[in-house]
Amino acid sequence: MNTNRFTGTLHLPGDESFEEACFGRVFNARRPFDRCPAAVLEAESEQDVVEGVRLAVERGWQVAVRSGGHSWATWSVRDEALLIDLGGFREMSYDATTGIVTATASVRGGDELNPYLGEFGRFFNGGHCPSVGIGGFLLQGGQGWNARGWGWAAESLAAVDVVTAEGESVRADERHHSDLFWAARGAGPGFFGVVTRFHLRTRPLPGHLAHSVHAYPLGLFDEVMTWLHGMHHTVSDLVEIVALTQTPPGHDEPLLLVTGVSMTDTPGQAAEALAPLHANPYADRALFRIEAQPTTLAEQLRGQRTANPEGHRYLVDNAWLTGPAEEVVPAIRKAFTEQPTPQTFTIWFSMAPLRELPDMAFSLQSEIYCATYVVHDSPERDGELRAWLDDAMARMRPVTVGQYLGDSDFTVRQLKFMGDEQWRRVQEIRAVRDPKGLFVGYLSTGAVSNTNHWEQ
Ligand SMILES: Cc1cc2nc3c(=O)[nH]c(=O)nc-3n(C[C@H](O)[C@H](O)[C@H](O)COP(=O)(O)OP(=O)(O)OC[C@H]3O[C@@H](n4cnc5c(N)ncnc54)[C@H](O)[C@@H]3O)c2cc1C
Predict the structure, then answer these.
(1) Cα–Cα distance measured from residue 451 to residue 424, given in angstroms and rounded to the nearest whole number
(2) Between β-strands 92-95 and 100-104, what pairing exists: parallel, antiparallel or unpaired?
(3) Do 319 and 410 form a contact (C-beta atoms < 8 A)?
(4) Does residue 65's CB lie within 6 angstroms of at least one atom of ligand 1?
(5) 127 Cβ below 6 A of ligand 1
(6) 55 lines ligand 1 (CB under 6 A)
(7) What counts of helices (H) and strands (E) characterise the chain?
(8) Whose CA, among 25, 161, 191, 250, lies 20 to 30 Å from 274?
(9) Burial of 4 (0-12, 13-18, 19+ CB in 10 A)
(10) What is the DSSP string of 207-226?
């Protein structure tokens, strides 16, 4: 095979480097060794991607893509497909006249993009964990910092550069190739092209970040969460509100942490924005309290990195929830109060009051996002822990409207992830843009139906 057409490296099965090329950049240590790509191309340029797509067409292979390697179910490693790994293709440039930053897909939102933008006093609402690649994150919607107030990260896309199934490189925005631009904001791993560059609208770096944490014993779970459920929509939209069960560093037991991070410009604004969270009627029973303390993005990112340590096995699931507190709180109780391993954590992420979404493929959300991350190190415990997680998620079913692609795995269960009209449109565009099914699409057992499995 002529590999001179690439500046990057092509790895073939049988090469000593092949396994490392397949799995070396995968975040989740629970790896799908039963899936085997046809080849892995470590692309270094847009031209490499074009040549990679053309090679796949010549060989009759499908194409899978990897940017940051953070998909929990390792969507990038697919049987008989050319895996185009964009990890070695890293570029960023900022245009101060438009406020738009252009970044290649493997750039990491917290580790690379925001430190770079900080030099210009600008910010992008990338993923919470600093090492998440912007590629997979943006394509599925992108629940970045303060998604509740600033919206989904994909809403800040101005344009994308895409290598199509025909091996052509095009720029897609509201006016050109608008079908691709529409789909790139929410189709996630079902997208039918390789995005090489994202053009992103940035915002001014907030002048003053502050945070509040109230830590409660799990015995107060029902009381505290019922209160939070009734009031979170009233808090300023400059506050990211997350309640989570976690064993914080220095503690032996999991605690319920009710947290707020405010993105304002002054300490006075921060104190005012966070004050409603301090008025918790159970505050005097908190084990510790931090209130409107100044923080930095770097400190918040360090906390995220500690919560999501590398090198461990993760089992993850999620649900969009709706309903009154008396239904939602008991439905999520197991996920929050019975942690099966010390590093396991469950988050309750406020999106209330819900903002209207622009016209894009991403189209399903609710007031509360709930996700559980089971973290462990014993392959022999995978089955037992999976059963625990499945049961915790099954209990949420009565109040579940669907799921977010970012924390999903269709090989385990399928839930609705976009509106019916949007789902129809994604399939119509795919039929035109990728009629032969060059791109691997959603990884699933069985056909993808965009339906909650219990409603089929
Ligand atoms: C520790 C951790 C923290 C996370 N925190 C958040 C968070 O705060 N908010 C949130 O929304 N999500 C979060 N996620 C989920 C994460 O956003 C998704 O897993 C996302 O898919 C990761 O993107 P990636 O590029 O790193 O992953 P990859 O595994 O490289 O990509 C996932 C898939 O997306 C598609 N894809 C990626 N890049 C391209 C491209 N350039 N062109 C075409 N298709 C592409 C492919 O199908 C690919 O297989 C987190 C995940 C982890 C592991």
Answers:
(1) 13
(2) antiparallel
(3) no
(4) yes
(5) yes
(6) no
(7) 12, 19
(8) 250
(9) exposed
(10) SEEEEEEEEE-GGGHHHHHH
208-407 to CATH, choices 3.40.630.30, 2.40.110.10, 3.40.462.20, 3.40.50.970: 3.40.462.20
Report which ligand 1 atom has the smallest distance to the Cα of 136: 23
List the domain boundaries for the chain.
Answer: 208-407
Check whether the bond before 353 is cis (ω within 30° of 0). yes
- Residue nearest (by alpha carbon) to ligand 1 atom 6: 127
H or E stretch at 179: helix 178-184
CB of 100 within 8 A of CB of 81? no
* Two tokens, residue 35: 């899936």
pLDDT in tens, the chain (456 residues): 666 899 999 999 999 999 999 999 999 999 999 999 999 999 999 999 999 999 999 999 999 999 999 999 999 999 999 999 999 999 999 999 999 999 999 999 989 999 999 999 999 998 888 899 999 999 999 999 999 999 999 999 999 999 999 999 999 999 999 999 999 999 999 999 999 999 999 999 999 999 999 999 999 999 999 999 999 999 999 999 999 999 988 899 999 999 999 999 999 999 999 999 999 999 999 999 999 999 998 899 888 888 899 999 999 999 999 999 999 999 999 999 999 999 999 999 999 999 999 999 999 999 999 999 999 999 999 999 999 999 999 999 999 999 999 999 999 999 999 999 999 999 999 999 999 999 999 999 999 999 999 998
Q: Which of 383, 368, 17 is nearest to 225 (CA)?
A: 368
Q: How far is CA 447 from the centre of its chain?
A: 23
Q: Is 66 in the pocket of ligand 1 (CB under 6 A)?
A: yes
Buried b (16+ CB within 10 A) or exposed e, 158-167: bbbbbbbbeb
Q: How far is the CA of 98 from the centre of ligand 1 (A)?
A: 27
Would you say 172 and 180 are in contact if contact means Cβ atoms under 8 Å apart? yes
Q: Which residues pair with 295 in a beta bridge?
A: 209
d(CA 135, CA 148): 21
